[in-house]
């Protein structure tokens, strides 16, 4: 039985999202500099050579992981918007925030974004990060119909949530922690 070029392409097309998902997990653990293509291949249970057939290199693989991350964020935000009890702009933004808080309870997507921010000077990664942030901001604007300052607060609170979760501030007794975390809760 011979393999046709179209079946090879369809197999590669089917594998790319699976490898990107494995890349999310691997890069979330080790960051860009601490993760190799072999680490991603091991996570995906394929050979490094096959990863290189799917992606031009580590940078392209990281960008694919970041794109998958933002795709997952947008799916969660859409589900949050659909579940909003209050249809007002603030109600929709609150529902988006709740959906995002639930999403980052699994720290992989959160940590990938943190690692991406730390290497945003790499042109392709910085561009993918800006595109992803643009997609989230545009979605929040169009879905909520909120004023720009409300959308800005929504994004700012999201970044504050990143800080709270990554530094494990929830439940700490210090007075300054109470000031930063007031009114913000994250699901366990």
What does this 3D model show about the protein?
The model has no long low-confidence stretch (mean pLDDT 92). Helix 1 crosses helix 2 and helix 1 crosses helix 6. The protein is mostly helical and 188 residues long. It is globular. The chain starts with a helix and ends in a 7-residue tail after the last helix.
Q: Descriptors for this entry?
A:
mainly alpha, 188 residues, globular, 78% helix, 9 helices
Structure, briefly:
With 188 residues, this protein is mostly helical.
Set out the fold topology.
Elements: H1 5-34, H2 37-44, H3 48-54, H4 58-83, H5 89-103, H6 107-118, H7 123-144, H8 148-166, H9 175-181
Helix pairs in contact: 1-2, 1-4, 1-6, 2-3, 4-5, 4-6, 4-7, 5-8
Count of individual beta strands: 0
Strand content: under 5%
> H/E order of the elements?
HHHHHHHHH
Low-confidence stretches: none
Assign the structural class, choosing from mainly alpha, mainly beta, alpha/beta, alpha+beta, or little secondary structure: mainly alpha
* Helix residue percentage: over 70%
Termini separation (Å)? 51 Å
- Outline: globular
The overall average pLDDT, rounded, is 92
Largest sheet: none
What Rg do the Cα atoms give? Answer: 19 Å
Helix count, per DSSP?
9
